[in-house]
Write a structure and sequence with these properties.
Keywords: Photosynthesis, Photosystem II. It holds the Pfam family NAD_binding_10. InterPro entries: HCF244-like (IPR044256), NAD(P)-bd_dom (IPR016040), NAD(P)-bd_dom_sf (IPR036291). This is NAD(P)H-binding protein. The strands form three sheets. The chain has a seven-stranded parallel β-sheet, sandwiched between helices. Strands 7-11 form a two-stranded parallel ribbon. Strands 8-10 form a two-stranded antiparallel sheet. It is globular, with a radius of gyration of 19 Å. Helix content is about 40%, strand content about 20%. It is of the alpha/beta class and about 260 residues long. It has a domain at about 5-140 and about 170-190: Rossmann fold (3-Layer(aba) Sandwich), CATH 3.40.50.720. The protein is built from nine helices and eleven strands. Helix 7 (about 200-210) packs parallel to helix 9.
Length: about 260
């Protein structure tokens, strides 16, 4: 079987859906991996059911694949991500996959936050795998902040960490870059991708509340600990890589304001 297909893992997630749509435009055979059976209603996409964490269904899914764009993650049960990465790499080797494109997080090597440590370990596994690889770190997605503020706003006072900044980037723009990298050869760690503007978290919260039509007091609070210190250090941002175009305000106007 000729290895020319692109496989997207985590294809039903926020980023995976965006990547899948752009991969279809390449004209190459496109496959999508999901833990649950998906109705094959996407023209040009072949869906496979497989479980990365258990290593089930991967050999069939990866046979004939040249490049994997790895978007699968589970922030709620993130300890599964490392066994999943092991299974992905082992199966990719057996299938003769030539290139794995991985998406990670800006600051993952500077903030001792448990989920970030897992992402960093995944980067190390990929680099040592013997498979051609590319690793892209991106800043936070607006949808994540939206979810956080939705939860926090259920209380009369919205508590946010003091002196913390972030740089939201549109997942569609990250998807554009991932597919571009997939079409090129393995490049190792590539320059980070960040949104167009750096914001303090308290400002993000206030603008979100206005867009959502909610009246709440936003109270910045000092959070102790090494992870919180890492967040305060500015490690979530890369101002010199502000290459994204879609702003936080544009996201609010489209997704939050009603």
């Amino acid at each position: 079987m000729k290895n020319d297909a692109i496989m997207v893992t985590g294809a039903t997630g926020t980023l995976g859906r965006e990547v899948l749509e752009r991969a279809r435009r390449t004209g190459l055979p496109v496959r999508a991996l999901s833990r649950r059976a998906v109705l094959p209603d996407d023209v040009g996409v072949t869906w496979y059911t497989g479980d990365l964490a258990k290593g089930v269904g991967l050999d069939e899914a990866f046979a004939g694949v040249r490049t994997i764009i790895h978007c699968a993650t589970d922030i709620r049960r993130f300890k599964r991500d490392i066994p999943a990465f092991h299974h992905l790499l082992e199966s990719a080797k057996r299938a003769g996959v030539e290139h794995v494109v991985n998406v990670s997080i800006v600051g993952t090597d500077r903030i001792p936050y448990p989920y970030y440590r897992i992402k960093l370990e995944g980067e190390r596994l990929l680099a040592a795998s013997g498979i051609g690889w590319t690793n892209l770190r991106a800043t936070q997605f607006p949808g994540l902040l939206d979810t956080v503020f939705t939860v926090l706003s259920k209380l009369p006072v919205v508590l946010v960490p003091t002196r913390t900044v972030c740089q939201p980037v549109d997942p569609g723009e990250v998807a554009d870059r991932l597919v571009e990298l997939a079409l090129d050869g393995p490049a190792g760690r590539v320059p980070d991708l960040a949104g167009p503007e750096v914001h303090t978290v308290d400002r993000l919260a206030r603008t979100w509340l206005r867009a959502a039509g909610k009246r709440r007091l936003v109270l910045p609070v000092f959070v102790p600990g090494k992870a919180a210190a890492g967040f305060r250090s500015g490690a979530l941002t890369v101002p010199d890589r502000a290459v994204g175009r879609r702003t936080w305000e544009e996201y609010l106007a489209e997704k939050v304001a009603r």
